[in-house]
Batch of 2 targets.
Target 1
Amino acid sequence: MPEGTLCNKQPVTTQEQLDALLKDKGGELYYKEMESLDVDTEKLWASIQKTCKSRTKTWLDICAHCGLCADSCFLYDVNDKDPKQVPAYKIQSTLGEIVKRKGKVDNEFMRMCMETAWSKCTCCNRCAMYCPYGIDMGVMFGYLRGLLYSQGFVPWELKIGSGMHRLYRAQMDVTSEDFVDTCEWMAEEAEEEWPGLTIPVDKENADIIYCINAREAKHYPEDISEAATLFHIAGENWTVPSNGWEMTSLSMFAGDWEACRMQVEEVYAAMDRLKPKRMVATECGHAFRATVTEGPYWAGLESGKPPVESIHYVEWVAEALRTGKLKIDPAKKIKEPVTYQDSCNYIRNAGLRDCAREILSYIAEDFREMAPNGDHNYCCGGGGGFNGIGRYRKQRNKALEKKRDQILATGCKLVIAPCHNCWDAIRDLEEEFDVGIRWTFLKPLLLDMVIVPEHLKPEE
Amino acid sequence: MYEFLTGPMLWVSFAVCFIGLAAKVVWYIRGLDWRLDRVTYTKNVKYGVRGALRSIGFWLLPFGTRNWRVKPMYTILFFGFHAGLVFVPLFLTGHAVILKERFGIDWLTMPQGVADFLTVLVLITGLGIIIRRIALPEVRIVTTAYDYLLLAISMAPFVTGFMAVQHIGDYQFWLTAHILTGEILLLAIPFTKLSHIVMFFLSRAQIGMDFGIKRGGMKSKGLAW
């Protein structure tokens, strides 16, 4: 049973393995090895028999082949309505075939499945809303990704990503010390402007435990300081945990369920340890999906909910504006036309569409909806790991066209995108197509327009 | 032949259909797994029930969902086809007569003119569905011979029934053919996709519970189907 040194069925569990993968630039050797990676058909079939139960089996069996899902898929649309991009076709020709053949598929077939699962579906779940039977092909592609991962057929970046979660409990090599250092550094800088501002680490019984996306600690530390400033202005009693601060899950994109469990358990342990009243999640969609929506199931929590009530940043902002904890200076509201990118992971898949609109009613004078929007929004073009996979860059760039056209149709030059994936995708689409738009998270916008209470006013 | 088809065979057909469907329902519900499906079916039941009812209700309503509205032609084909398929066999006077004669049951019936109209509607919309399958590339690519077989099985009792009722050709032949094709349909239901007679409701309830309990139903007014 030949397995590669880099491309194999084993998850990354040591720093050496991780370094070896990272050294293989672009995954050149990794993908070369994949071409001769054996499929353990018995294990594959055993796994399917154990996990493909009545819901998934029924989805595969009763699909009426009506094609009504076609137009729901933005990838079908941007790829000139290529029939091979019809969601039903994509899932029937991959997972459907594997099940039909009782797992007896070869290497070439598995590589085709990998390409389909990671470059033709972003798991945005929009098709589920358009199928008369309610067949959720995004969920099935998630399931297929898990099968592919267990056989070693996973894009290079995601093998690394899930390895990072296993080794660092973060999507990148940010340790607990790195994170705490970053918080201290940000607190020191912010304190110069905001006397009394702190970033309390590991404070017990706080009202809020704030968890983030590791990218913020590593690449955008100012995001942490912006969050701290807004909590400071709102007078919140909050904390960050030294362990369990990372909410993202590249392992979810990879289909590495074991790593998913390890990652969320770290966050839940922080909740158990520090006993906060609530958790507030940063402006990220998939992080929320992983830690709040799916995480409890990975961790086997029978309530289906995290140990403490967990809300997304947009929920906190809406609440702060509603209750007056944050007040907007009317003169500083956004005057220009502005649109909002609905993140699939917390709008369609977590019910927060009205929350987002509530925020806009406070901060924007000329808010313009994309069409369609809310629960029916289109993926930004880079969800489900698509943004991060070099091998499928061309397909990803093509996928951005939908969002580009949607944004242009609103006539807005400013897009609010409170989701790291969407934010990246919109940045990339500007880079790719040069359409002259700007994009932003909520935090910097709010900081520019919030009324600072007298007693907190920075010293002149 | 006629005696056999209207006697033991009829009983067997109904028995297979009902028992088969009941078995599918039991199999489906028993196979739901809160951890694998990642839906706490037995927690927050109120939200689950609401989600399930919304999910079924909006889709049963013509133009009730966004997809029904953006595809009006298909919606008309679909609802026309199903209206005939469901209501004609259930409320045809000719069927009610049998119930009355054999079991003394008074059954609801529809006027013959309505039944004729719905039968023709099934044939026309069925034809439309076939043409759509051939004409649209996004439907053609997922279509298999099996799909046409199922359409044939579903429509055959209507073709034969129509011929018999209208007394076109040999009445006895068409009547026998009607009973036979009707029984084939009953027998096929639990073993094919035609089981969607019940699986539609189960599958819709499941996704409704998924969105209703886990994916936002507890925080919003419900998914905008």
Target 2
Amino acid sequence: METVIHSVPYTGWVYPNETIFEWSVLIAVYPYLTGLVAGAFTVSSLYQVFGFKRLQPVAHLALLTSLCFMVFVPTPLLLHLGHPERAFNATLTPHWTSAMAAFGYFASFYVVLLILETWFAYRPFIVEQAQKRTGLLGTFYRMLTLGSNDVSAKAIAYDQKWILWLAITGIPAAHGLHGYVGFMYGSLKSREWWSSDLMPVIFLFSAIISGVSLLVVLYVASCKLRRIPVDVPCVKGLAYTIWGFIMVALVLEGLEFANIVYKGREGVEMIMEYVTGPLLVPYFILQFAVGAITPFLWLSYMIWRGTAGRALVAGVTACACLVLFSVFMMRWNVVIGGQEISKTGKGLLYYQLFIGGKEGALVAIVLCIAPIIALLGLSRLFPPWVHGTVSSRVAAVGEH
Amino acid sequence: MTEDTKASLNARRAFLGKLGLAATCTGVAAGAGALGVLQSASAKTEPAPAAAKKTAAAGAAGSGPAADGKSFPTADYDWTKHQWAFGVDAAKCIGCLRCVEACKHENDVPRNAHQFRTWVERYVYLEGETTARIDSQQDPVNIEASGSEKEDRFANRYKDQKVEKAFFVPKLCNHCTHPACVQVCPVGATYRTPDGVVLIDHEYCIGCRYCVQACPYGARYFDEEKGVSDKCTWCYHRITKGLQPACVEVCPVGARVFGDTSDRQSPVSLFIRNNRVSVLRPESGNAPNVFYVGIDKEVN
């Protein structure tokens, strides 16, 4: 059977081998998921390490979200590989000059760290369930205790130390992981659209705002589902976090674009033709105007006016949805946009997104939704809202 | 100072302390990583790739010819005794595309208009125009003229216009001294041999296509059927037997020159010595080993 080749239309002069798009929408989904992981972990760290008490209601949710999304991070890559069965070659015999080679180690380290931190955070709950429950679920929790049933104040204080240090280690791990994803693009000198020293930092800040926004949406949705009131100070805290980081993200993106235009290196004419043509709507309108500047102004207005209560929750949730959309558009505009500008600097290609197929839109949507379904399942086993946080438990144990 | 203010200040101090701690951790991790990795990851270094290591290990283990003091990697060919290079005289190329067809036939390259190990570009300056009109055999107009994606031909599309200047430029992998494709391969499946040829181990390639993205010349493509990247090898299976690459062999005008630069009298040594040669995209730092004569500013 002859292999089906999906070539793309183009204008101007492009190299013959460029007419097949090599990195599809799945490669845009990959940094999107990684960013959500890093951003969610930021919230967890703000509470666990930096003591942002008002984020307590989402601290455990942040940890679980980070874990669920991290588990799915390699899937778009595996689906994309020509030989997924050889994927472990990169870990078994890494070629260290490659920016991609360390991914397996970084990702594995971070998954282990997340599992460990989650285990420590949930240990009192696991012990309680192991003692209370019978049957298959009881056995499951008993296995998860790993034989450690001590929930005395001393033991919990010891757990808290582990959580603190794991969270501290997790900050460079989570942000390094995502900065490194940005480096994978920024370090390629073959494409002017990618080749930027600012790329890792831009990825990092957009990751933070996307992860925090995801938590806003998940937290508010979970409160609605559980029919409990939303903790407004917590949402306000998350809103401040988005507001602060979105300013930096916007400035960095603006600086990067200014750099490209101001340097005016070979091929800049084609970049200008691209951003003012096919990329005008996805880049300036959707990513910047709708997804970033609108929520920034909206959040600024709410902070200035001191909006509170339901209006604040609704506003922040809407802003969070816009930011989530904006960051996905940013990933799209980098990954797909970069390939739409020919390496010749004299032509443009037009990516065609298929609905079906291994690397189509449906698979991309499933990959974005799958971590949320996993989170739904995991939150039934480890409720992130029932038991509060370890710090509160330590305090509670101390009081008794 | 009120108790509230004191508490607030203490909390702020504690926060800043923790922020400093986190920043230190990040700094230490980044610093250690940067120091240790950057030197070996630099594009200018040539680490032993997995595939080359595998071959060398076989020799070192006593099973290969090198262990017996014979030539390596085969009994008839010692890759330490050659340094291959390629020359293109664009002034001679007539755009017949025999090289493209020979390459596809010789190397089992998919017969379509989107995957090539070598291709030919046509540059045409029409009267009154300052930039070239560029196309290649894959252009839809040329495909229409040939009647099939499996046939390569340049359509006579400018016959009714006044052409001021026109020339053809054969393109292929530049087998760079500092190849970006080798640098980015996460498993070392693509590597540079001691005789200066960049190869791909198809048994080891995972098909991530990072190398395809990294090549500034568009010389690589992804073979969907095999699930691996592919590109020109200068017909390594031929040159190690003393033959010429297929494209060089069939060129009717001698526009393609190939040889061993360690032999001062080889065709390519003479080509480089007797001409003012240039390379494509020298600013990339890749140090290509395909040398051009007769190209102008528009070619990259």
